[in-house]
Amino acid sequence: MSSVLRYTESLCExxxxxxxxxxxxxxxxSINKSIDDWSVSYHxxxxxxxxxxxxxxxxxFYIVEGRKYLRIEQETGVNHDGSITQKSIHAFVDKKTGExxxxxxxxxxxxxxxYSLMDKESRELCYRNxxxxxxxxxx
Length: 139
Description:
- The protein is an alpha+beta fold and 139 residues long.
- The chain has one domain.
- 40% of the residues lie in helices and 24% in strands.
- It contains three helices and five strands.
């Protein structure tokens, strides 16, 4: 396995961890702002499922390999039949250089390198700043 692929897998893991932290924070905020018992009970149930590791996060990040780029795809939500409700492109990573790009479309990255996974300092900055919504990719 190439270093670029390994670092890209680590980026996907970091994105999923960020989404999990965001989910916990959102449920806690909802409990604090709730005005009815049903709402508090629902959000507490979600937090209990998170603690027990039975919560369905419904957000996945994975890699699709293309000719020139590794494409990080993001799946959001699952229907009752298991089909995906929404899919988008999170980022592109150059397979040779490890350069990370914001996506411009389904098939191509935006201009301008955002991070380099082969440079230790840039890679660590990327992992530290990454967020599931992609804000870290804006120049």
